[in-house]
Amino acid sequence: MDTFERGRDGRSTDLPSGGGVPTWMAQTLNFCSNCGGSLRFGEIDGEDRHRLSCPDCGHIAYVTPRLVVTAFPITDAGEIVLLRRGIEPGRGQWAQPGGFLEVDETVNQAAIRETREETGLLVEPGEIIGLYTRLEAAVVTLAFEAKIV
């Protein structure tokens, strides 16, 4: 199994040499859901990527990124509403409202909920303005333009 350096929060800051999921994310699972054996992170059958798998039964434990939904609320004057982050990562930095998609909501509902939680504003999500991948955080971010209602 590969060894990787860890950042301030204890998570790996490196990506596996073959690409794929960040090691810290893969290391969150320890045991096979199929047979209970110990999972290992590495190449499988000479593939050009690393995966988390069980050497006992061959089961691959797919670790997928989390979906973050953000909104850029726009005022009637055409200004974008931002907020200052109150928590890490990025405490004190400017950011758009957003957060993780819950399993019982659509991406539009998540944009509305997160904006309301973080700013108190009620918005109507509009056009998708971007889709971004952050491998080091194992997240995919979907960004909406949003009208304040």
Task: Tell me about this structure.
The protein is mainly beta and 149 residues long. It folds into 2 domains: 1-64, no CATH class; 66-148, Nucleoside Triphosphate Pyrophosphohydrolase. Helices cover 11% and strands 31% of the residues. It has 2 helices and 8 strands, in the order αββββββαββ. It has helices at 23-26, 107-119, and strands at 40-43, 50-53, 66-74, 83-84, 94-95, 98-100, 123-134, 139-148. Strands 6-3-8-7 form a 4-stranded mixed β-sheet, with helices on one face. Strands 1-2 form a two-stranded antiparallel sheet. A two-stranded antiparallel ribbon has the order 4-5. The longest helix is centred in the C-terminal third of the chain and has 13 residues, at 107-119.
Features:
2 helices, two-stranded antiparallel ribbon, disordered N terminus, 8 strands, 149 residues, 11% helix, 31% strand, mainly beta, elongated, Nucleoside Triphosphate Pyrophosphohydrolase, four-stranded mixed sheet
Radius of gyration based on Cα positions: 19 Å
Q: Number of helical segments?
A: 2
What fraction of the residues are assigned to beta strands by DSSP? 25-35%
Quickly name the level 1 CATH class of the largest domain: Alpha Beta
* Unreliable runs: 1-18
Residues in helix, %: 10-25%
Termini Cα gap:
52 Å
The CATH fourth-level homologous superfamily of the largest domain: Nucleoside Triphosphate Pyrophosphohydrolase
